[in-house]
Amino acid sequence: MNNHPFVGLAGNIGVGKTTFTEIISTNLGWTPYYESVDDNPYLGDFYGDMSRWSFNLQIYFLHKRFQSHFEMSKSNGGVIQDRTIYEDVEIFARNLFKMNFMDDRDWTNYRDLFKVMTSYLRKPDLIVYLKASTDTLLTRIAGRSRDYEKTIDPEYLHSLNVAYNRWVESIEDIPVLIVETDRFNIFKDKEKLDSILKEMKEILS
Known about the structure:
Layout: E1 6-11, H1 17-28, E2 31-33, H2 43-48, H3 50-73, E3 79-82, H4 85-98, H5 104-118, E4 126-131, H6 134-144, H7 154-170, E5 176-180, H8 190-204
Parallel strand pairs: 1-3, 1-4, 2-3, 4-5
Helix pairs in contact: 3-4, 3-5, 4-5, 4-7, 6-7
């Protein structure tokens, strides 16, 4: 396996990326990089008024993700990132634009900024896509008691799932490992976890 593997973890809201990142990094001795969620100053406002705050929120995420991605690129060991920078434009910003929560001007500005920023970044050696149904996502979100997530529209989550599936199918320049998580308990199903770890190592070797 590559001495300095860079793995990006992709998946919808509530799918379990943070937990997966913790467990994989512990098992493989990698450095984890987490998404800026709890300290995000825009999330509460965004879920209250998506049209007003969508551009601000996406710029914040892009800034934080670029910062993490750049740091990971310089790492002397293996790293795993809780959500990739590519999801910011291909899933969240694009979806907000299609749902008319982001106008043409902001979408074009955001997309152009993304292209410039990512041109300076190393691509991940592997993207692990954690997949779950909308019902599963809603159950997991309800179980983690984040106040600002209580108002998430199931239709919004579903639209993100559709966008994820479309994006994953379109990726050609980075290997992708799809992990179905609807019936996967990462704490109890050791056999499945070992199988995932083995497949990751094989792809990265």
